[in-house]
Every structure is written in C-alpha cells, then in structure tokens.
C-alpha cells in the first residue's frame, strides 16, 4: 500500500509551497490507489499555536485536498517517542550527553576563532576503550544519536537523482532535549516508521535532514521510504517568496478571488508538466502525475499566468456553483442578491469577462443596485440631450410586448434612425442610466435580466 504524508508545522499560515507539497503527495497516493496522511508537527511548543493549526486545517479544506488519515499531532505521541528513545539508548545507538551550556559555548567560540564550522566533539559518545568523564550532578543530559563515523549515507531521490552525503559531515544530533522533549528529526522518523510512510515527498530544504533521518530509521530497524525533494518556488523577481513581499498564504488567494482548483492547477505546473497541457482539473492531474516528470530546478511564480488559469476555470464552472461563490462577496459589498434577476443567470452573461471572483462580484453588483457613474464617463457620454433621449427610449421600452433581449434589441435600430443618432449615442448613455457604468455586456441582455420595472425606474430617475 502506497502511503504518503503532508506534515506541516503550525507556526503560521498554510503557504503555497506547502500546498504544492501536499498536492504532489496527495496526487501520488491517489494515482497508486494509496493513502494520504495529514500530520501536524507541533513539537515546537513556543511557536505552534491553535490558530495556526486551524489555519492549516482550513487551508486544506479550502483547496479540497482530502486526507485519508489524520490529522495526527506529534504532541499527542510523546510517550511513543520516549519509548523509542530508551530503545535506541539501550541498543547503543544513542547516548546521554552531559556537556553543559558553558562548555558548548566555549567549543563554539573556539571553532569560530579558527574560522571553522562548529561540531560537537563527541566527548560523551561511548566507544570501545574510551573512558567517559564523570557524570556531573548539576547537568540534565540531552540524548544524542550516534551517527556513523565513516562512509556515506545516500539515497536515490525520485526528483533529484542519486544523493550521497559523507558521514563525516553528520554531527551526533540531539534527539531529546534536557527537559526530555524530543526534537524534530527524531519525531519525523518515528512518525514515518509508525505510520508506514512509503514515499516522503517534501521540499528540498529538507535534503540535509534526510541522511540524519535515514540513519535513525536504520537504527530502529525500519525499511527506508523513497524520498522525493521538490524544488523551491521563487517569486516573480526570482527571489525566495516571503510573507512581506508576496501573497504566500492560501487565505490570500481566497481573498484575491482565486478558485481553489485554479490555484492547484497552477501549482501543479510549477515544476511539473505534461507536454504543453496548461488547463486541467484534479482528476486529470492525478491520471497524468508522475514524480519522474518533476523538475529538480526551482520554479518562478507568475501571477499573470495564475489569473489566466483562474479565468479559464471560472468559465468552466457551472453558473449555479459560481453564484454560490459570488453571493458572499456581494454581501461584503452591501448588496443582497434578490430572487430576480437570478444570480446564476447573471453568471452566464458576465463570467466570460473576468479573471477572478472579486471582478465577478463587481460585474454582478449593478444588476441589483445601480453604480455611481464616473465623472469621466459622464463627461464623455452624458448630457441634457442624452437624459431627454433616455426618457423617450424608456417610453419605447415600456411598450415592448415581450421583455427579452431580442425584443429589446429590435427597438435599437428604428429608435436611432428616428433620433438621427448612431448606436453608440444610445448604448453608452443607456448603460449609464441603467447600470451606472459603461462597461457591461451586451446592453439588451443586461436590460432583459434586470427586468422591465427596475429598468424603467432607473431610466426615469436619472
């Protein structure tokens, strides 16, 4: 059984790099009829907050990446971590280190003075024939893992290819702090072991953690999963994305009016591709997805491309579904969508004109409440004569037998001939009189949807 996992730390929001990692892990599991696990790595008690946990759960729900198991919380597994710690110590794979903070600071200062990287000198590491220092009474020990001293640790990365790290570059890392709390790299290994994770798909900022985790897992007697390290997502300037400069939280994209499927579609194309295919839904993505098609190079985020994809998904979404998405955005604008015109009917008229749900809400607003015309549009298209003409055309509209776009359109040509004007001299003032903006779809279709009574009220109230 293929089992993948997404394991975010709840120290902030769910960012788009995390969403892409979750997407690829989810898709790999679905492609192979496996299971996708959500794990919350909340052992950083100072930075992890309930609000951040909820932000992750809400974000996963919003993008629609359902998980088969979880969420599991590391803070609920401390007894298990303590059990494995004791097993590693008893088996000679880990040891207690009584080095004081002052001693470590001195070692660090000496390394800096030599211009060298700081390494723990393994003074408390048990070795054959080695005499350990006397255990101090006033120092609570940490637990360190005994990394191999020779050779190398390597793996065949499903994205980056073969990676080998010399064991001489691996420090004896701390796997439990002096207060007994387990550390990140240790908890990850125990969790992956217990949860039967077969493929670890994560960001390439974890490459340096992988040899450490491999050695711990081998000491536990566990089978190694396959590892796949995904390349970084850069912003449009080619720099690492940051909260200060970029919209990096999924909540930001919701506020921007991006559809979840459009964001997933776009993130799927960051570092992965299927020929020239750009627009697809998640079922198609799962069918196509293979980790061998993921590029090991960093990808650059392009907001314009995201908006283009969002527009395509808006067009492909049913009018009824769009109406439910737009309704709360209208409410924020102080507009309550009435029964008539039906919001879904408006969708069919305006969704081809927008790139995001906020624009879609703006396009719907004037169907329920006339906008205030801009000074520029009034100066260009409005006059006393235009106002008088609107009253004359209102009389024509009032007498039309069938209130539909075709019947309304049939009035345009004879009225313009009667008035001695071109269609633009009727259409633009008519839009301003009824909608309050000159930027609308075909005016006959707009009037037909707004309804005879409301159209005449607005025209005669200008």
From TrEMBL:
MF terms in GO: ATP binding; glutamate-tRNA ligase activity; tRNA binding; zinc ion binding
EC number(s) reported in the record: 6.1.1.17
Group of enzyme by EC: ligase
InterPro entries: aa-tRNA-synth_I_cd-bd (IPR045462), aa-tRNA-synth_I_codon-bd_sub2 (IPR020751), aa-tRNA-synth_I_CS (IPR001412), aa_tRNA-synth_I_cd-bd_sf (IPR008925), Glu-tRNA-ligase_bac/mito (IPR004527), Glu/Gln-tRNA-synth (IPR000924), Glu/Gln-tRNA-synth_Ib_cat-dom (IPR020058), GluQ/Sye (IPR049940)
Primary localisation category: cytoplasm
Reactions the enzyme catalyzes: tRNA(Glu) + L-glutamate + ATP = L-glutamyl-tRNA(Glu) + AMP + diphosphate
Residue span, Aminoacyl-tRNA synthetase class I anticodon-binding domain: 322-460
Cellular-component GO terms for this entry: cytosol
Function (record text): Catalyzes the attachment of glutamate to tRNA(Glu) in a two-step reaction: glutamate is first activated by ATP to form Glu-AMP and then transferred to the acceptor end of tRNA(Glu).
Official protein name in the record: Glutamate--tRNA ligase
Source organism per UniProt: Paralysiella testudinis
């Amino acid at each position: 059984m293929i089992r993948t996992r997404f394991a975010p730390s709840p120290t902030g929001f769910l960012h788009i790099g995390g969403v892409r990692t979750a997407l690829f892990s989810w898709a790999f599991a679905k492609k192979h009829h496996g299971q996708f696990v959500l794990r919350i790595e909340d052992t950083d008690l100072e930075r992890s907050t309930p609000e951040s946990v909820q932000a992750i759960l809400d974000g996963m729900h919003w993008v629609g990446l359902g998980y088969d198991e979880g969420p599991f919380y590391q803070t609920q597994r401390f007894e298990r971590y303590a059990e494995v710690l004791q097993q590693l110590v008893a088996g000679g794979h880990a040891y207690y280190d009584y080095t004081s903070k002052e001693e470590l600071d001195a070692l660090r200062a000496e390394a800096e003075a030599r211009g060298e990287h700081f390494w723990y000198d393994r003074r408390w590491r048990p070795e054959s024939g080695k005499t350990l220092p006397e255990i101090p009474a006033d120092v609570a020990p940490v637990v360190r893992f005994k990394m191999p001293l020779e050779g190398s640790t390597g793996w065949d990365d499903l994205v980056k290819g073969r990676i080998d790290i010399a064991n001489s570059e691996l420090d004896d890392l701390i796997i439990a702090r002096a207060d007994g709390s387990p550390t990140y790299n240790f908890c990850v290994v125990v969790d992956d072991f217990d949860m039967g994770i077969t493929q670890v798909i994560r960001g390439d900022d974890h490459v340096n953690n992988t040899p450490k985790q491999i050695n711990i897992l081998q000491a536990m007697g566990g089978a190694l999963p396959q590892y796949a390290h995904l390349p970084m997502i850069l912003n449009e300037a080619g720099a690492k994305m940051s909260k200060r400069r970029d919209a990096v939280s999924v909540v930001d994209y919701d506020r921007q009016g991006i559809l979840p499927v459009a964001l997933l579609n776009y993130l799927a194309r960051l570092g992965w591709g299927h020929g020239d295919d750009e627009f697809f839904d998640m079922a198609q993505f799962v069918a196509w997805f293979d980790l061998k098609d993921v590029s090991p190079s960093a990808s650059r985020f392009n907001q314009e491309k995201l908006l283009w994809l969002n527009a395509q998904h808006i067009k492909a979404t049913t009018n009824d579904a769009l109406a439910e998405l737009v309704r709360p955005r209208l409410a924020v604008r102080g507009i309550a969508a009435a029964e008539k015109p039906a919001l879904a009917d408006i969708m069919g008229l305006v969704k081809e004109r927008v790139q995001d749900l906020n624009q879609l809400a703006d396009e719907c607003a004037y169907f329920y409440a006339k906008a205030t015309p801009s000074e520029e549009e009034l100066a260009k298209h409005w006059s006393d004569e235009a106002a008088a003409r609107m009253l004359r055309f209102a009389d024509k509209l009032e007498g039309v037998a069938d209130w539909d776009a075709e019947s309304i359109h049939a009035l345009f040509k004879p009225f313009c001939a009667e008035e001695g004007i071109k269609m633009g001299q009727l259409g633009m003032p008519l839009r301003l009189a009824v909608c309050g903006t000159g930027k609308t779809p075909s005016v006959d279709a707009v009037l037909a949807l707004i309804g005879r009574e409301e159209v005449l009220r607005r025209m005669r109230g200008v």
